[in-house]
Write a structure and sequence with these properties.
single chain, tt1808, chain A, 6-stranded mixed β-sheet
Length: 193
Amino acid sequence: MPAILELPEVRQRVSPLSVEEYHRLGEVSERGRRTELIRGIVIEKMSKSPLHAAVAKRLYDLLLARLPAGWIVRREDPLTLKDSEPKPDIAVVWGTEAEFFHAHPSTAELVVEVAVSSAALDRENAALYAEAGVKEYWIVLGATREVEVYRQLEAGGYRETQIRSLDDLLACGSFPEVGFKVSDLFAETQRLG
C-alpha cells in the first residue's frame, strides 16, 4: 500500500483531512486502531514493543520528578497543530490539567518520541514540531541507545541537531534542572529488546 502513494496520479487524488474533520472521526480507525493526523493524513499508530514502553515510562518518570512547578508532562496525548494532531510519546507543556479539559495544547516546550523500529517518521515530524514552536525535540533511538536532540528554532526548523550517547548528559535547554544521562533511560533494558 505505501508504494501506491508514491505514484503522482494517486498522490493528486489523496484527500487530506482538516483537524476538525479528524476530530469527528474519533480516536480509532475503522479497524479499532489508534490514529494520529500528520499533515492532513490519518496514520495508524504502531504497536509498542516492551523496550518502547519501558523507555517511555522511564523518561516520563525522570521528567516528572525534575520539572519545576507549572509544567505538565503529557504521555501519548495529542497536540493540536495547524494541519496535524500528533500524539507524541512525551510532551512537556505549560499550564494545569484543567486548562486542557476542552482543547489540547497547540505547542510544547519539549516533545519526545521513542523510536525502536523506525525513526523515519519521527525525523520527518521535526519540521512539524518546529513550525508549531516546540523549542526542543528529542528522538530516543532504542536500537542504538542514543538520543537525537533538535534545538534552536529558526525559520520553521531546528538549527542544531546533536546525537547523545549512553555516557552523555541529556538536558533540556529550557530546564537546566532537567538533566540525566542517556544511560538512565536504558538501564536494565538490555533484555527487553
